[in-house]
Each structure stands twice: as C-alpha cells, then as structure tokens.
Specification:
The chain is mainly α. The chain has four helices and no strands. Helix 1 runs antiparallel to helix 2, helix 1 runs antiparallel to helix 3 and helix 1 packs across helix 4. Keywords: Membrane, Transmembrane, Transmembrane helix.
Amino acid sequence: MTLSEIILITFVFNIVCGLFRVRQTKLKWKLLYIHLPIPLIACLRISSGISWKYIPLLVIVAVLGQMAGGKANKVMFPGTMPAIKPELEEEE
C-alpha cells in the first residue's frame, strides 16, 4: 500500500468518525471517535513499511478529516445539533 492510499484511507475514515463525533454529547464518546482511527492508521503505516517520519503528515490529515466530518454534518443535517440536556426545572 502506498503513502497516497494510506492518506486517503486516513482522511475518509476520519470524516466518518468526525460525523459521529459532533453528534455526541458525552465527552467519553467524543474522545472515542477522535482516537478510534489511530490503531487503524498505525497498522496500515507499519504493515506498508512507511517510515515514522510521515506520522506528522498522517496526524494533520486525520485532524483535517475530523474537521471535514464536522462540517459535513452541518451540510447533511442543517438545523440539527446534538441533543442538549434540558436544565432541570425547579419544583415549586
């Protein structure tokens, strides 16, 4: 697998994770979707024999994919945002 293919896979997978990330309200799920692609990217890079010198490039591509996924969510689902917990009403 070439570096270009790994970059493309990294970007697309992070777009999907970014779509799911912005819809979450709990921090633990947001962190999961941010860190979920890391093992995949690492396995692809190592199995392809690509040098560790390209890790910063892959991190930048992953961040751009997450951002693109967040923007795509706004385009695909305009006017909808993740559910916000309603404030507890005070009892009288």
